[in-house]
Q: What sequence folds into this?
């Protein structure tokens, strides 16, 4: 009986030891493949030899030694001990790895937090600069003569544009991080994009005494893309080239069609300057949000540090790629390569002149903010609109209920208002007034794509974002009235 038990224990111990050898070898391979324990690899591999020797020892005892219950029990217990140690080692290493991952994530989070803190510090400085200019020139303008007043107004307008650009970058980055940035599919003219982006930066280049060389070489000019976002990506590169190239320097901008496959053109957009360049260390984090080269703020160069991350995300959404080479003190060279579907039937009509005469167009302007009301009223009256006003959605609905059908040609509706917001007001107008067919356009700071969609779903005919772009406002109103 003892002999049978001994043989069983030795046989079971041999099987367990075989499993121990297999398990440990697999564990050692995983450690080697991870490349994170290079110093410990040799030590970890040494037990494999001992385990293999133990295994053959078990086989030798089982085949040639006389069964002995004590020896068999020791061998069986030894194999169990090795199995338990195997499990503990694997579990301990797993915990260590998890801790390392947590530490790595914590380090990355701390780095991101530090970058955001630095970004907020710089942004605060960059926002205060145009705000200070607006406040200062406004005070000076109140006491200045006509000539100086015009000069101050021009500087206030420039500072306002700088402030709006900073805010726009921050909002755009927040949309990108939330995964809400989407591209439109529209037929665009690349030559038009090229000319417009040149025009936007040419004056600034001239003022900074930078030689600005441009060229375009494309066969297929009409493509399917998002004109606004493509122009934004290019403008970011040109703006940086202008900011970081000193007086007397040179910037080259070109668009080239470098290939074509079926109905897709491959386009290369290149912006090259001989400006201050970037350090290798900063190149590694150039496309990370909230990163700025530490010397940029010290040198007085303004910017949010979000232009490049935004550009990279736009290019990648277009299934393209962005590359950069740069050398400190010698300049930078950015290249975008973007595939775009070629459009053969553009359907483009001759561009009409912008309508600026809206004499007699009776309009109800619904706006709760007195300053916004005053600005919008001044713009609209300048172009001939006949205006009535309302300070909330309920007042607008009541006015449309009291006038005869067709009295108003147009309603310009703010969204965020007390008592009744713009969406609720529009639904009430569509469902319960004698003027349910009046044209309604949202005129609001809620300017994201989902905001526009919500306006249309509420029953509005169009959308104008704030701050108001006069040309966009007039074009939208004209299109809605024609529709």
A:
């Amino acid at each position: 009986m003892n002999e049978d038990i001994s043989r069983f224990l030795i046989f079971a111990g041999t099987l367990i030891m075989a499993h121990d050898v297999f398990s440990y070898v697999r564990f050692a391979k995983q450690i080697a493949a991870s490349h994170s324990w290079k110093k410990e690899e040799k030590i970890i591999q040494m037990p494999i030899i001992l385990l293999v020797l133990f295994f053959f020892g078990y086989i030798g005892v089982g085949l040639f030694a006389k069964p002995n219950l004590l020896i068999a029990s020791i061998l069986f217990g030894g194999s169990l001990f090795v199995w338990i140690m195997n499990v503990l080692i694997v579990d301990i290493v797993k915990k260590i790895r998890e801790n390392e991952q947590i530490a790595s994530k914590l380090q990355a989070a701390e780095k991101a937090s530090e970058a955001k803190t630095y970004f907020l510090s710089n942004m605060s400085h960059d926002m205060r600069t145009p705000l200070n200019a607006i406040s200062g020139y406004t005070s000076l303008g109140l006491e200045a003569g006509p000539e100086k007043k015009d000069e101050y107004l021009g500087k206030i307008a420039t500072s306002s544009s700088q402030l709006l650009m900073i805010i726009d970058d921050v909002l755009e980055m927040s949309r990108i991080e939330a995964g809400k940035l989407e591209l439109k599919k529209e037929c665009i003219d690349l030559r038009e994009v090229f000319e417009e982006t040149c025009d936007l930066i040419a004056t600034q280049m001239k003022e900074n005494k930078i030689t600005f060389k441009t060229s375009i070489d494309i066969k297929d000019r009409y493509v399917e893309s998002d004109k606004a976002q493509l122009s934004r990506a290019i403008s970011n590169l040109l703006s940086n080239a202008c900011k970081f190239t000193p007086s007397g320097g040179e910037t080259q901008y070109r668009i080239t069609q470098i290939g074509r496959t079926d109905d897709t053109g491959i386009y290369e957009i290149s912006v090259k300057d001989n400006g201050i360049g970037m350090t290798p260390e900063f190149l590694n984090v150039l496309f990370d949000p909230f990163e700025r080269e530490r010397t940029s703020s010290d040198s007085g160069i303004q910017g949010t540090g979000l232009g490049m991350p935004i550009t990279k995300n736009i290019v990648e959404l277009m299934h393209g790629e962005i590359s950069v080479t740069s050398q400190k003190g010698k300049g930078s060279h950015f290249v975008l390569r973007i595939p775009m579907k070629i459009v053969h039937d553009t359907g483009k009509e001759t561009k009409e002149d912008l309508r600026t005469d809206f004499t007699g167009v009776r309009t109800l302007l619904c706006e709760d903010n007195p300053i916004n009301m005053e600005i919008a009223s001044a713009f609209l009256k300048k172009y001939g609109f006949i205006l009535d006003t309302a300070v909330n959605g309920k007042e607008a609905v009541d006015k449309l209920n009291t006038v005869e059908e067709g009295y108003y040609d147009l309603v310009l509706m703010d969204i965020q208002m007390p008592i009744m917001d713009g969406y609720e007001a529009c639904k009430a107008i569509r469902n319960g007034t004698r003027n349910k067919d009046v044209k309604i356009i949202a005129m609001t700071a809620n300017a994201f794509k989902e905001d526009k969609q919500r306006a249309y779903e509420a029953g509005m005919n169009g959308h104008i974002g704030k701050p108001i772009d006069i040309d966009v406002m007039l074009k939208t109103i004209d299109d809605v009235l024609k529709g």
Observations:
- Residues 186-342 form a domain with the Heat Shock Protein 90 fold (CATH 3.30.565.10).
- DSSP finds 14 helices and twelve strands in the chain.
- Residues 296-300 have pLDDT under 50 and may be disordered.
- The longest helix spans residues 69-143.
